[in-house]
Give the backbone structure.
Amino acid sequence: MINAKLAAKSHPQHQSIVKLNSQVAFGGKELVIIGGPCTVENRQQMETVAAHLSTTSVQALRGGAYKPRTSPYAFQGMGETGLEILAAVSKKYHLPVVTEVMAISQIHAIASHADMLQVGSRNMQNFDLLKELGQAGKPILLKRGLAATIEEFVMAAEYIMSHGNLDVVLCERGIRSFDNYTRNVLDLAAVAALKQITHLPVIVDPSHAVGRRELVAPMAKAAVACGADGLIIECHPEPDKSVSDAAQALSLQEMLELVNSLKPIATAVGRSISELAVA
Amino acid sequence: MINAKLAAKSHPQHQSIVKLNSQVAFGGKELVIIGGPCTVENRQQMETVAAHLSTTSVQALRGGAYKPRTSPYAFQGMGETGLEILAAVSKKYHLPVVTEVMAISQIHAIASHADMLQVGSRNMQNFDLLKELGQAGKPILLKRGLAATIEEFVMAAEYIMSHGNLDVVLCERGIRSFDNYTRNVLDLAAVAALKQITHLPVIVDPSHAVGRRELVAPMAKAAVACGADGLIIECHPEPDKSVSDAAQALSLQEMLELVNSLKPIATAVGRSISELAVA
Amino acid sequence: MINAKLAAKSHPQHQSIVKLNSQVAFGGKELVIIGGPCTVENRQQMETVAAHLSTTSVQALRGGAYKPRTSPYAFQGMGETGLEILAAVSKKYHLPVVTEVMAISQIHAIASHADMLQVGSRNMQNFDLLKELGQAGKPILLKRGLAATIEEFVMAAEYIMSHGNLDVVLCERGIRSFDNYTRNVLDLAAVAALKQITHLPVIVDPSHAVGRRELVAPMAKAAVACGADGLIIECHPEPDKSVSDAAQALSLQEMLELVNSLKPIATAVGRSISELAVA
Amino acid sequence: MINAKLAAKSHPQHQSIVKLNSQVAFGGKELVIIGGPCTVENRQQMETVAAHLSTTSVQALRGGAYKPRTSPYAFQGMGETGLEILAAVSKKYHLPVVTEVMAISQIHAIASHADMLQVGSRNMQNFDLLKELGQAGKPILLKRGLAATIEEFVMAAEYIMSHGNLDVVLCERGIRSFDNYTRNVLDLAAVAALKQITHLPVIVDPSHAVGRRELVAPMAKAAVACGADGLIIECHPEPDKSVSDAAQALSLQEMLELVNSLKPIATAVGRSISELAVA
């Protein structure tokens, strides 16, 4: 039904491992948890976040330097300065970095500063960008489009893979629906389906899916229970002061509690969560 | 935001217990798992199912005697004969029964034969029926409408409650969306949201949500992890011969394996699953 | 594909005529325009509306006596008193009346006072009600459910028809979608599709579809252009004081202007609009 | 509510005129109809289409040289050879050309060969591309994303405009929904809303919206009736042999009949359709 050549499982146990760095990999027994703010705001903010996360089971850092915004007049991110902050903090705290690439012209700079390049929902079918990322030399975190079918999602990965880069991780982050109680509807059956269809690791972004802080933890738990290979979760030293997506960011303390609460569920489904991200 | 008077939590720990019978109740530490076929087909089928389920942790039996069907020419269920089969099997195997009520005229007969009355998705805003169920004297399993908002769902419960029946259990069973890979999209964030908004027990129907056998187990696990108070799952002695919804029914063996696989997850979130439904 | 036996066209020109009374019929060359408030509020309101509409091309009166409301605590309509007001005003101004039936127990009273019984969106698959309306002896206006497929909509009509009542008019009134700029999304392609699939008249309710006064007129025009057999439009003597759906009601003057603006479009597609509803 | 600075109307009669060439413009009294195949397949095909359309009221030619496809293994279009065919045929038959741009690297070549650059649905929020099109020196046809809100659509235009190009035409082409009877749901209320919110011309693509040949004509009529400034419609010399979107393409004869049927509707709403595209 879904004609993927490179992303499709060749047998039921077929599972790819995508390495984020020498210590952290997606698709193995150990889940990968990525944390950090929506947007890189300044050095101090990222220092605070990274210092905290490096003492927890969170193994990677997120933060946007280039931000896709509905309005051209909204803050578009710190750009290269943001990348430099990410790189410095990453090195200091031994946390690999995932950050979004919105344009071919940004690939080189981002690939120089970050460990993994994220393709956002709005660009899931930006085929020009996908093809170029086939040559990026870094693993790709591909987010599902807001109204993308499972087939379209897998075939978007296929664009990257067929252009040379097999290190693709899929990320379910909610689809558009009719009830604005939540920001989007988290489609966890898609996670389970993707785990059956493809050999690629699949992670979940509960923060963007629900858009409400109080629903992030239960959705993170559900994601782990249904077989996700990891999570990407927004947290901020002062959530209410976040320049973007304030309503969905966890405090650093809430992040710590959430990660700890996931451990017994991971164990229950035969997975694990790192005791500490770094030695 | 949601102006429920009777369904709303009065404090964060406010949680109702809805008794199915003297031994089984929704909303406590122990999850309630309901199993059975989509449709009551004959006595032998129900005997086989009930005999099997009575040896597992499944605590209640489902099966439709009156079936809502898109076409008036499709099989509409066995009706009162089906109710009698349900009642006989229930008594023999000590499994309380949940079955759907589609019309006010059926309430009396169903309430005489079953332990819990289910309102299906299509009737979630059949206000006339909801009001009458306020006087039914039996607990109600209220399924979310195919395109009902969380607010509309809670207020439908409020219709039943404000007419005299406080024993309402909510059931998330998937909402309509754009990708036909799955039958519907299971909205587990709604489950978490409902647990925060109301004191009513909330259960999940993964079978109707996904419509594909191979996705039922991961969604059942996710539901338990995010706080659901129970599950209602379709199983059949010969799934491929089921008169309705064949693609989503588990075999009896698959049902047993699923229920066992849920136990460690329930434990991980501080819940439990009955070791045996009956003594 | 859609297995309707009674609602399906037997040949391309197959078109049913559904009579509202001896002078007004759906499905012929002449379009039927129904106007009136969302809710019957009092005698004076209905007198004002009917007196005005009777001098325009509007041929029938709408107004809810029994109102489906999300909350049980919201105003549920005037009930039988509302029906009596509708009947009195109908007789005085020679305008046939369409009003909603929500329950089997209301059928007799409504059929005694009104010329056509409306099934609302929430009840489109209330099969029990549909079957009973097969015996109501009055034409039925069947509104599409909020998330009903075209097939489900046609088969709901089939329920009424197969139980004895062939006088069914379909009404597209918008489906649920993701953008809350409009209340719903008016699916005019469904109107064109229904005109090709079934021989039943198909009308459009632009008011509930868009939920914004300023978009009602362009959608009414579009509906006429694509082949609708009529329109049902909300208007009120003082729209901003309407007890329900105030944002979408037209003033009586706007209603007059709209109806006049539709005439050249009707002519352009080979249809007509009554010059005056009554002699 | 929608914070557009450049796209917003400054007064109710504010309406931009976007010129396609010296003879054809969007936003005036005269509607612009664009016709042609989904994909440029070869010179003969385009000659046949253009020769035919040049004798009708169709004023511009469409045809894809670069094709966005779900699968990387599907035909991706003829590329620059296709552009050359478009340019040659355009010159010979005096029909300006609209064709899709999928990548910044294609802008220069397309702008050299075509009169208008189309941004497809999948790229509506490819902000990098939008910004660059602000410098393209050609008018832009911006198609609505599959799940884009009206606000997001207007703000995507704002990206192009704020980067220097005010010549933007919006195109509604259907949104994703739950019923697969039609390919998408044509949201004509969005057309009416956009005409009220922005001064930009707004056209409609009924072909991609419905995905079924027999529904194109009624939706084209509805679009004209509700105020669209033009239409873009797929037609093909041999629709069933079209390399893409065969089910929705009209034959050249059907295209002629459709355009003629639109004229009285255009007149009815105070608009007109060119008697002949060229002298």
Chain C has nine helices and eleven strands. The mean pLDDT of chain C is 96. The first helix of chain C runs from residue 43 to 53.
